[in-house]
Amino acid sequence: MHTLKKFIQYYAPYKPVFYFDLVCAAMISLVDLAFPQILRSLTKTLFAGEASQILSALLPITAALLLMYIIQALCKYYVSYQGHMMGARMERDMRKQLFDHYEKLSFSYYDQNNSGQMMSKLVSDLFDISEFAHHGPENLFISLIKIVGSFIFLFLINWLLALPLLALVVLMIFFSYHQNRRMRATFMDNRRKIGDINSRLQDTLSGIRVVQSFANEDIEREKFRESNENFLISKNANYRCMGSFMSGNLFFQGMMYLVTLVFGGWLIAHGKMEAADLAMYALYIGIFISPIQILVELTEMMQKGLSGFRRFLEVVETDPEIVNAPDAVELTNVKGDVEYQNVSFHYSDDDAPVLSNVSFKIPAGKSIALVGPSGSGKTTICSLLPRFYDVTGGTICIDGKDVRKLTLESLRNQIGIVQQDVYLFCGTIRENIAYGKPSATMEEIVEAAKKANIHDFIESLPDGYDSFVGERGTRLSGGQKQRISIARVFLKNPPVLILDEATSALDNESERWIQKSLEELAANRTTITIAHRLSTIRNSDEILVVANNQIAERGKHEELLALGGIYAHYYEMS
Ligand code: ADP
Ligand code: MG
Question: Which ranges carry the ABC transporter domain (predicted)?
């Protein structure tokens, strides 16, 4: 019920189309209902038998039928065209809402959900929605008019014969209701299985270079086969339900004809019904059976559509964890003082704390370096500043303002991040650099590329800045990609900078080049550097050693060496 109520809300913008669609649907069924009546009046005239009477009746009947069928055809055009478009628009609205919502969901959501399922929800789950959105109410309406209408005529023609038919219809409704509940679960399961297939496919394709380099195609094939087979198993349960539903309903229809013939014959034999009325009966049952068939198909369409809609709701009803506070203010005119006060953090409630009581201060324009074993929480410390996650204890301030009291957009606009993994979007080099500032002019882009030491390389390409980088930048080397990502940050020109092992994945030669660009980038910005090579951070204003969820040592390079602790030990080893 909850699902249906939510679903109905999506009709709101299309009310006029929706109601007019129903009016057209009603006209279509009224014309069908009228035909036997016209036939009846014609047969009456026929039985009356005078040729002149018959001929004079033909003209008005022709006119009436022609008018009726023209109206019916026009209505059908509206229903098939505008009705379908209404469904397609609703589907578009939902897809837009889902996409917008995906963009808002926090990192923690993406930690727990895989992108294959998410894609499946956006693409295939919403696919059946428009069909149901449009045909659902319309078919229901047409069918109800036809069923109720023909039943009224059946009762008028002979109420005795109508009674057992009514009993059969009631039985059929109970049967359908019961079957429907079973079908719903199987359709939902189908959706999940398709989502699994999407996930598998996406995982394999994203990692295809790893797959081929390990020659592990067999393993991937096996995993994919499993998802594919599971889908078949799920379909099997689904079609079994549908089979018994469809065949059950067909059997009920047969029983209606049987009852009509046998009981009708019995009534005629006992003089309780006229033979001509039995023929009328058969006509009206024809009108009455077809909407039942439509309702049966509608049930399938509804379960398909609604199961997709339910999966859609699962997402849009998940609130993003990190949102603007109601009284959030813009962060403007940033100096760049950063302060962590007693910051504690754990990723989820049942995980052990990753950070406890971490405190440090970076005056505007100064730099600190974080060092420590892998997994000690360095990246985590950095993720808290742009609020990819919120601290679970303590506060983080920029210019003395708690980051949770600032708007997310203005906060993130002030922070530039260069990471080990560079993500380049499918597109040209120019577009990828401009990602740092979409309004940038070509001069600004070139300027940024020069500062990142990548301009000469770009110029050497046949298409220059318009060269296509391929999906995820597959056509560039690691160092080139990294320099493009540095150009992006130059263009963004943020007062606060995070360099998270920006050179770790590079060879010595590229590293030296990039180190130069990074130093230039860091000049006059508040910078947090995580480096795997200690030589690159010697000049930091302060070095923090992260170990055991805490800052174990802090000071300048020489002070830490003199201390003879963890840092000194690292330094000796490197
Ligand atoms: P570092 O950057 O120092 O290598 P991280 O900050 O990446 O370390 O990780 C610190 C700890 O937090 C590790 O134990 C890691 O397993 C855990 N961790 C990191 N990211 C997540 C996440 N998204 N969800 C849950 N745990 C995480
Ligand atoms: Mg890290």
Answer: 338-573
Q: What pLDDT shows up at residue 224?
A: 94
Pocket residues for ligand 1 (CB within 6 Å)? 111, 347, 354, 372, 374-380
Q: Which residues are 555's β-sheet partners? A: 543
The two beta strands, 355-362 and 338-345, are antiparallel
Coil, helix or strand at residue 12: helix
Question: Are the C-beta atoms of 248 and 179 separated by less than 8 Å?
Answer: yes
* Mean pLDDT score across all residues of the chain: 89
> What is the pTM for the complete model shown?
0.82
- Report residue 524 CA to chain centroid gap: 42
Say how many Å lie between the CA of residue 554 and the centre of ligand 1: 21
Tokens (6 digits) for 197: 């297939």
State both tokens at 363: 């005056």
| Beta strands per DSSP E along 48-184 | none
Give the whole-angstrom CA distance, residue 224 versus residue 222. Answer: 5
Please state the φ and ψ torsions of residue 127, each to the nearest 5 degrees.
-60, -45
Give the model confidence (pLDDT) of 19-50 as tens digits: 999 999 899 888 888 887 787 777 777 777 67
Kindly report the length of the chain. Answer: 574
CB 142, CB 294: distance < 8 Å? yes
Query: Strands, E, within 364-521: which ranges?
Result: 367-371, 393-398, 401-402, 415-419, 496-500
Examine the predicted complex and report whether its ipTM is higher than 0.85.
Answer: yes
For residue 427, the number of C-alpha atoms closer than 13 Å in the C-beta half-sphere is 11
Residue 20: name the closest of 178, 159, 156, 134 by CA. 134
Q: Which residue's entry shows tokens 């298409």?
A: 463
Closest Cα to atom 23 of ligand 1: 111
For the chain, what percent of residues have pLDDT higher than 90? Answer: 47
pLDDT range class, residue 125, cuts 50, 70, 90: confident
